[in-house]
What does this fold into?
Amino acid sequence: MNLGKHSSASVLARRGGRGGSRYIAAIYFAIICIAAVSSALAQSDAEFAKANQEYAQGHFKEAISGYEALVRAGQWSANLFYDLGNAYFRTGDFGHAILNYERALALERHHPEARANLQIARDEARALEMQPSAPERYLQFASINQYSIAAALAFWLAVFCIARLLFGRRRSAATILLLVFLLFVFAIGTFAIYELDRGSKGRGLAIVADKDVQARLATADTANSVLALPPGSEVKILSTRGDWVYAALPNNLRGWIPAKNAEQVRL
It folds into this structure.
């Protein structure tokens, strides 16, 4: 009997040991992941600081190379695009400056320095802008993310109200009024998301960053020109065909542009 108990205890000990080993291995793996992430963040911070130093010393092309490396690595932030825009502005490349100011504002709508410098760059380049539709003008006080949060919150609160009306003992007039209000908020939020996403500042927004770009009637360099687009001009990409994009242009026009000349704001 004693031998049997001893054997059972040994088996449990071995099982506990294996479980403990897995637990320790998981902890080591988590520590390694945290260390790797911390190292990557530290390296990114160091590269960003180096690019800032190059900018401060007036080495704008070197600063651009450093900032662009961070963009390619996916280390996106409003301040990174803002600084990159400033570096391009210093080299006289207003098209790429405007592109990066727009990207900064796409990440942080209320970035006053990016907005102010964007207007200065537009004035210098005489860039053309897309005009927002009437619904867009009224809906631009909030971002798509804010409308999404409001719509999601209204939806789930409405579900709660419906459940209360279905399963509650009494149907409260206040609950019904609240449900109607929440459905109204959900509808407005959904409409705003749709309008802003497909609008002049939505997903299709692109910047013509290069010089001497012409929007044309067809996908050929010899086709008639529809509109000359100064650097930094806004277009909205509607479709793609090979190396060309069909775009909505300022002044309510449409035309074909080489895809390489139209860089989307949202990466």
